[in-house]
Amino acid sequence: VQLQASGGGLVQAGGSLRLSCKASGFMFSINTMSWYRQAPGQQRELVATITSAGTTSYANSTKGRFTISRDNTRRMVYLQMSSLKPEDTAVYFCNAAVNGGYYWGQGTLVTVSS
Asked: Which of 42, 61, 66, 80 is the most exposed place for a label (fewest CB within 10 A)?
């Protein structure tokens, strides 16, 4: 299982950013994919999840601002982030639930300036 996240960067508060995650090494279309984030000194937290059927769920802190989506043909999962806040600053990780195990990408840093 390999997950390659990209799209992070520096953005001003109120701005938008789209993260991408390229998956390989497993049957992407049948597995649940998620985005997590970890801020400095904080525990890693779940941001959003999308099932193989396309059902989505979000952390309360991101609901209404973030949108998770997937493209099974391209084996990609996305996180569209809008109305970004300084507290969204974190390293964002792509996660795949595969055969009872959880796999992680390398993370991409998102910094939101006030």
From this structure: 42
